[in-house]
Amino acid sequence: MPRPGDLAREAAEDVFFGQVVMIWARWAMIAAAAVVFLWNTGDVGSLTGRVLLLAGLMAVNFFLHGRYLVERPANRGLILVASVADVALIAAAVALWGGFESQLFVLLYPVVFAFALVFPPRFTAALTAVAAALYVGAVAAFDLGWAADVQLVKVLLVRLLTLGAVGGLGTYYWRIQRDRRRAALSAALGR
Amino acid sequence: MRSSSRPGGAEDLALGQGVIVAARWVLVASGLVLAVVAPPSASTLRTQVVLILGLAVCNFALQAQLMRRRRTLAVLAYAASAADMAIITALVVADGGYASGLYVFYFPAVLALSVAFPLAITVAYVGTTMAAMLAAVWLTMPAGSEPDMVIRLLILAAVALCGAVYADIEARRRGRALAGEEVPHAAAG
How many domains does chain A have? Predict the structure, then answer.
């Protein structure tokens, strides 16, 4: 049974080593946003606004990635805030551009998965629930027409189920890796 | 438990197989519930039930193998994952191609194989899955939906990338633990 000090150190190391996965997930989100903004926007005014948003996201991720590369990664609190902000941004994009029809909800999958690989299960459960709630809220805020069609409700349910599955499977793998690491450490100490 | 630090080894496959089996149970359970609730037509329901129950039988065999702690046969694991992708593709085609919402089942499936398989095999599987995903919707894709398709493909690759990067990070952490090396100072929190 690990001591509380060991657990705290292990959690800090999880954040230290694992946050690059979250940084890569955010790069994927930025790439997808670039595709949507540059492909779909016709007029100069709205394109300028969206490019500025994209540049802001890139600046934040350059900052986080740069700190990771010089072995001074962001702390746990900052990463938590950044992850919640990612989920909120995706939900806002869904609410603004298409609601139920928007395919931007798929951006939630790598964000939730990367989070599950770094944080303990209770944090992952909370973020997954927040992501699902914000997404449903965003879809409802855009339009409620889909709620009358049972086939569309099923589609929404599939999206939420797979989002929950991604969080759950990420946590499952996090546990497997934690147990393997502890076994390796015990083996090294027992030599 | 003996622990290896080499990523993509037999132990990674054996432990990752648990994630793949769990992902497949998610597909079976949610697929079955969604198939029987308000099915759009009898033929669609028939196709979906046959595919999902077939998958359940195969997964039970793999689950039993894991529970009896039998050695994971790499060929069997790879074939089962290929079957997963083929079944998801068949479900998407049967459900209307581009308009089908079932393509999201690719995400947990790709997640699971990205943490279990060696990198080269993961790349091959993800590439093939992306091609299958595109082929399944190609004929039914409306004009102007290209950006959405690019996003789907991009995020599928991103999920696999996250899994592969994390598996590599953990292999190196385990290697350091086995060697008794100190972790960088900042990691101590």
Answer: 1
For A17, the closest chain B residue by CA position comes to B169
B186 located within any domain: no
Q: How many residues does chain B have?
A: 189
B158–A11 CB contact, under 8 Å: no
Residue B184 lies in a domain: no
Q: Is residue B138 part of a domain?
A: yes
Pick the closest to residue B61 from B39, B77, B46 (CA basis).
Answer: B77
Determine the Cα–Cα distance for residues A29 and B176; give it in Å rounded to an integer.
32
Question: What is the total count of domains within chain B?
Answer: 1
Which A-chain residues 83-142 have CB contacts (< 8 A) with chain B? 103-104, 106-107, 109-110, 113-114, 117
Contact B1 A117 (CB under 8 A): no
The pLDDT-based confidence of B3 (bands split at 50, 70, 90) is very low
* DSSP single-letter state for residue B139: T
Interchain CB contact of A26 with B (< 8 Å) = no
Whether B43 is in a domain gets the answer yes
Complex-level ipTM: 0.89
Residue B143 CB neighbour total at 10 angstroms: 5
Please check whether residue A79 is in contact with residue A89, taking contact to mean a CB–CB distance below 8 angstroms.
Answer: no
Q: How far apart are CA A171 and CA A112, in angstroms?
A: 10
Domain residues for the domain of A54 are 4-190
- Strand segments (E) across chain B: none
**Tens-digit pLDDT profile for residues B90-126:** 989 988 899 999 999 999 999 999 999 999 999 999 9
> Which residues in chain A come in under a pLDDT of 70?
1-5, 191
CA distances from B83 to A91, A173, B86 (A): 33, 22, 5
Domain containing residue B46: 10-175
Q: List the structure tokens of B138.
A: 């190609």
* B181 to A72, A183, B46, B176: CA distances (angstroms): 19, 15, 57, 5
Residue numbers of B between 46 and 65 with CB closer than 8 Å to A: none
